[in-house]
Write a structure and sequence with these properties.
The chain is an alpha+beta fold and 304 residues long. Among the domains are: 92 residues; 63 residues, no CATH class. Helices cover 42% and strands 27% of the residues. The chain is built from six helices and eleven strands. Helix 2 packs antiparallel against helix 6 and helix 3 packs across helix 5.
């Protein structure tokens, strides 16, 4: 359940409930049952928000950190520079990015009344929402992997808003070339490194060498007798094996790694903030919700 919700929305809703409860306390209300009902609801919200933030803090803390090239398959956190193989731009400003979401709102001012003191009423209506689903590359000093952002909570780094002809255009995006923190499930696709795949590629490489006998002799006929003997052929096979294994390792360390949404309901996060900044954020909000819960509990006990 926690992985389906946005941390920003949860904390915003909880803060709104706290403000409403505080307003009820400040302006006063003689109905004791109403007091208890409001305080009980606010306490439930604070318990949920506290558990939500603490759960996320644990997920970030517990996930193993790894370089891409040495990463094992499973739930993991990675850091690197984001880029795309196919150019992606934000829809309204055309800014190169690796991910975006955008809204178009109709903002109209309607006048209520016909006199000079008439009030203006704002009417906002959502016209369109778009979100990119194109995969992008994450690269560190050891290699790269493909990130499929579908289903991830995105903590964006940039937001642009502009108004035109009573319309409001909003864009949130992750710029290309920016360092990202990604928490999700890494699939290393090891089927490309199986014995069968390696042997198949070795045979194919040897066949391709045989199609050019002159080049084969120049490369492996060390005694220059005009033919490839058994020892020289074994050396050719050994070199073919080495080339194939190196090629498989390069493929595995680059385009064959895919990071996507975990299947077990774990947190899938793509963030422009560092893990240290995220930990600080979740720790801060955990303490806020815990402190609020204590205050609400004391107020409830006082009323009981």
């Amino acid at each position: 359940m926690f992985q389906r919700l946005s941390s920003h929305i949860v904390d915003l809703v909880a803060a709104g409930v706290y403000v409403c409860a505080l307003g009820f306390m400040v302006f006063g209300h003689e109905d004791k049952e109403a007091w208890q009902l409001i305080l009980s609801f606010a306490m439930l919200v604070s318990v949920f928000a506290l558990a939500f933030n603490y759960w996320r803090l644990l997920k970030i803390t517990e996930a193993p950190i790894s370089a891409i090239a040495s990463a094992a398959q499973g739930y993991i956190e990675l850091h690197g520079l984001a880029s795309t193989t196919k150019l992606l731009k934000t829809p309204f400003h055309g800014i190169p990015c690796v991910w975006y979401r955008a809204w178009v709102y109709a903002d109209r001012q309607e006048v209520a009344g016909s006199n000079k003191a008439a009030n203006k009423i704002s009417n906002t209506r959502l016209l369109e929402y778009v979100e990119s689903d194109q995969s992008f590359q994450l690269r560190d000093s050891s290699g790269s992997c493909t990130v499929n952002p579908k289903g991830a909570e995105i903590i964006y780094s940039e937001k642009l808003t502009h108004h035109k002809n009573e319309h409001r255009y909003v864009e949130e995006y992750l710029p290309a070339g920016k360092r990202l923190y990604v928490l999700g499930y890494l699939d290393t696709l090891h089927e490309y490194n199986t014995i069968e795949a390696i042997e198949r590629d070795i045979s194919a490489l040897l066949v391709s060498w045989k199609t050019n006998p002159i080049k084969l002799l120049l490369r492996f006929d060390h005694d220059r007798n005009g033919q490839i003997d058994m020892d020289e052929w074994e050396k050719a096979r050994a070199e073919a094996r080495h080339e194939v294994e190196v090629n498989h390792q390069m493929r595995a360390h680059n385009e064959m790694y895919t990071l996507a949404k975990p299947v077990k309901g774990q947190l899938f996060l793509i963030s422009a903030l560092s893990p240290q900044a995220l930990r600080s954020r979740y720790e801060y909000w955990s303490w806020v919700h815990l402190g609020t819960l204590v205050l609400l509990l004391l107020a409830y006990v006082k009323l009981a």
